[in-house]
């Protein structure tokens, strides 16, 4: 009988390490196979909640936030590209030049979860932003991605045009921050075990097997 594991994956749409972490976690789950039954929930976190609608140029943003030089930023992006390639995800380094506000994307992800399509939309958002350089705050982009993963585009546009699920997203964000999550990705298993950061597949796999074995 497989052990049931509830996994909360706390992340932001504009976080490249979250892409790597999610792919590594999914591959670890696949390796564990029938030993576990996983209920995966994607939880919201905003790295830049005050980001204006027009976004900000990446190197400028990293210099202001972390003091990074363009050379240092380029080195980090190359590390991210290589890590993504190992997991089968293509980061388009020349496609993405700006960082955007992600709150509406999180609202749409909350709605997608109610429709059973949250993971598919999250994956589509990651590809659109990190591979193709699209703007994840643009409502037309978000509506199109919703349609591409099998969601009703008219309903998606309606959600985005208003303020639906804003309170739910802010409540979830506050919950994880109040419980000590200040960097992402963060993986929480069965509301108890925390794995911080974009860990290698083997690390996630070992943790899943250990937790499943002691459940």
Brief summary of the model shown:
With 215 residues, the protein is of the alpha+beta class. The protein has helices at residues 16-32, 58-66, 70-86, 103-114, 118-131, 139-148, 153-161, 166-178, 201-214, and strands spanning 3-11, 36-44, 56-57, 98-99, 186-189, 193-196.
Description:
With 215 residues, this protein is α+β, with helices and mostly antiparallel strands. It contains nine helices and six strands, in the order E-H-E-E-H-H-E-H-H-H-H-H-E-E-H. It has helices spanning 16-32, 58-66, 70-86, 103-114, 118-131, 139-148, 153-161, 166-178, 201-214; strands spanning 3-11, 36-44, 56-57, 98-99, 186-189, 193-196. The strands form two sheets. Strands 2-1-5-6 form a four-stranded mixed β-sheet. A two-stranded antiparallel ribbon has the order 3-4. Helix 1 (16-32) packs across helix 9. The chain starts with a strand and ends with a helix.
């Amino acid at each position: 009988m497989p052990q049931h594991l509830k996994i909360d994956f706390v992340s932001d749409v504009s976080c490249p390490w979250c892409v790597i972490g999610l792919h590594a976690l999914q591959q670890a789950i696949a390796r564990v196979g029938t030993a576990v039954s996983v209920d995966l929930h994607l939880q919201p976190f905003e790295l830049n909640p005050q980001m204006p609608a027009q976004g900000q140029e990446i190197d400028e943003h990293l210099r202001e936030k972390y003091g990074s030089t363009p050379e240092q930023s380029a080195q980090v992006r190359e590390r991210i590209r290589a890590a993504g390639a190992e997991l089968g995800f293509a980061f388009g380094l020349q496609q993405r030049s700006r960082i955007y506000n992600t709150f509406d994307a999180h609202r749409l992800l909350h709605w997608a979860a109610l429709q059973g399509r949250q993971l598919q939309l999250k994956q589509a958002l990651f590809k659109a932003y990190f591979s193709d350089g699209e703007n994840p705050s643009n409502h037309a982009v978000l509506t199109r991605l919703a349609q591409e993963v099998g969601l009703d585009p008219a309903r998606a546009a309606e959600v985005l045009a208003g303020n639906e699920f804003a309170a739910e997203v802010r409540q979830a964000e506050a919950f994880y921050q109040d419980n000590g999550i200040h960097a992402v990705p963060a993986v929480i298993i069965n509301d108890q075990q925390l794995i911080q950061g974009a860990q290698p597949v083997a690390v996630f796999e070992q943790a899943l097997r250990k937790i499943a074995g002691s459940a």
